[in-house]
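Shift notes (night). Ran DUF3567 domain-containing protein while the centrifuge was going.
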Amino acid sequence: MHMLYDSDSFVVVHMQPDAEAAAPAADGAALPPQLVRHGFEIVDKRSGKEVYLDGSWAEMFQEQILAWQRNAPTQQEVEDTLDSYAGLAQNPVVVH
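Came back to this:
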């Protein structure tokens, strides 16, 4: 887990696959194949809700992050983009 962004309105966390879970067993036995995926959790602090992006949504968000790294957006531009994802947030934040 890696925090990417934290402001008064949003938190963005990159959830990365557990490297130990993806590694083969210590005794060399074959483990069943596991789907290793990453995703992003976006918490809207204003509403107290969160959305988890995985699959194609995570890939699109990763492209957005790469664009931010190239173009150095203002905080308002980042907040506006995160606000567009906040509409997807349905899950109340229980523990954070």
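Residues 2-17+36-89 form one domain. Residues 55-71 form the longest helix (17 residues).
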